[in-house]
Amino acid sequence: MNSEFPALKNDLLLRAARGEVTSRAPVWIMRQAGRYLPEFRKVRENHEFFEICRNPSLATEITVQPIQRYTGLIDASIIFSDILVIPQALGMEVLMNPGPHFPEPLVTPEDIKKLKQVVDVNVELKYVFEAITKTRLELNGEVPLIGFCGAPWTLFAYMIEGGGSKTFQKAKTWIFKYPEESKALLMRIANVCVDFLVGQVKAGAQMLQVFDSWAGELSPHDFQLFSFPTLRHISQEVRKHLIEEKITPVPMTLFAKGANHAIAFLAEQSGYNVLGLDWCVDPTEARRLVGTKVALQGNMDPNVLYAGKPAIESAVKRMCEGFRSAKGGWIANLGHGITPGVDPEDVRWFFECVHKYSA
Ligand code: CP3
């Protein structure tokens, strides 16, 4: 499979993910192809969000936008898509206006019947695989391509809340009132995640990231009960399936936002190579907690990007000193996705500062 693609010219990301201390930190940012880029907004003027996700040519065009703009400064691409393509593959309608909206969310466990019993990712999510293969060719080996999916708990929360939420009252009512039905649904989602991630590697993804954006909404006890088993299932099964199909497993990142109580445990038990961190944990402390068990990724507060070049420089310098204070792989990133309104030239400065201070 891999030999069909152009040779990789920049493997900093993959080396850091495997725990190597690299000559400088590889850097990319979550949501790097997004609304802060005028070239992204231009494409969005004429196309709906999910229309772009489903069109491999448009998805490829957008994925490479930041790579072209920041040539030589950015060390990874991430396929343009969304975590909510899995609920769509399960048969749910999802709109983006401007945030995610499910016209018919799951209300009671009875509604689970409405979901597709069997999801063939090669049919339902074929468009993502096509976009990945097309992007790999388009990238011409300049940087590795990351594939991704949402974590079961985060997807479950969207499917029940019907969109974003401040309290997660509905999703939490499910886990507390119907724990067994909830666990069964979470594992069903996890199995779709496994097939989807394996398919992305077959299509050309060179690394994988699982986004558990709402992990921090759960107590440590409930994270252990409702999220962690699915996260570990995904890392184990993806690796197992790839080996069975004689494909070399790729490094995997877990971004369990807000689950900083679990960092040491996740490093030991989750089966991921990299832990993504938000900004609420100190880099030196995170490194102390994980030792050299896993590589780390993160974690500047994305809002620093609104504060001008001197503020960005001092935050990046501090982040670099923290993550470089002890042995272990580190991938520089933000602590969450970049938001609209950031000046793309300030993003360039962020990359330049990482190059300078992580060397
Ligand atoms: O990182 C990348 O550049 C790759 C593409 C990517 C998108 N969404 C594109 C996107 C990735 C990796 C995601 C993941 C995603 N999607 C997450 C996990 C990461 C996180 O932010 O916590 C979540 C929770 C979603 C669900 C989602 N998609 C929300 C809540 C929203 C609306 C709010 C927002 O931040 O924009 C989206 C829309 C979305 N996904 C946009 C982009 C570029 C903007 C939508 C637009 O163009 O109108």
UniProtKB/TrEMBL annotation:
<comment type="subunit">
    <text>Homodimer.</text>
</comment>
<comment type="pathway">
    <text>Porphyrin-containing compound metabolism; protoporphyrin-IX biosynthesis; coproporphyrinogen-III from 5-aminolevulinate: step 4/4.</text>
</comment>
<dbReference type="InterPro" id="IPR006361">
    <property type="entry name" value="Uroporphyrinogen_deCO2ase_HemE"/>
</dbReference>
<comment type="similarity">
    <text>Belongs to the uroporphyrinogen decarboxylase family.</text>
</comment>
<keyword id="KW-0963">Cytoplasm</keyword>
<comment type="function">
    <text>Catalyzes the decarboxylation of four acetate groups of uroporphyrinogen-III to yield coproporphyrinogen-III.</text>
</comment>
<feature type="domain" description="Uroporphyrinogen decarboxylase (URO-D)">
    <location>
        <begin position="146"/>
        <end position="162"/>
    </location>
</feature>
<feature type="domain" description="Uroporphyrinogen decarboxylase (URO-D)">
    <location>
        <begin position="26"/>
        <end position="35"/>
    </location>
</feature>
<dbReference type="InterPro" id="IPR038071">
    <property type="entry name" value="UROD/MetE-like_sf"/>
</dbReference>
<keyword id="KW-0627">Porphyrin biosynthesis</keyword>
<dbReference type="Pfam" id="PF01208">
    <property type="entry name" value="URO-D"/>
</dbReference>
<dbReference type="GO" id="GO:0006783">
    <property type="term" value="P:heme biosynthetic process"/>
</dbReference>
<dbReference type="InterPro" id="IPR000257">
    <property type="entry name" value="Uroporphyrinogen_deCOase"/>
</dbReference>
<keyword id="KW-0210">Decarboxylase</keyword>
<dbReference type="GO" id="GO:0005829">
    <property type="term" value="C:cytosol"/>
</dbReference>
<dbReference type="GO" id="GO:0004853">
    <property type="term" value="F:uroporphyrinogen decarboxylase activity"/>
</dbReference>
<protein>
    <recommendedName>
        <fullName>Uroporphyrinogen decarboxylase</fullName>
        <ecNumber>4.1.1.37</ecNumber>
    </recommendedName>
</protein>
<keyword id="KW-0456">Lyase</keyword>
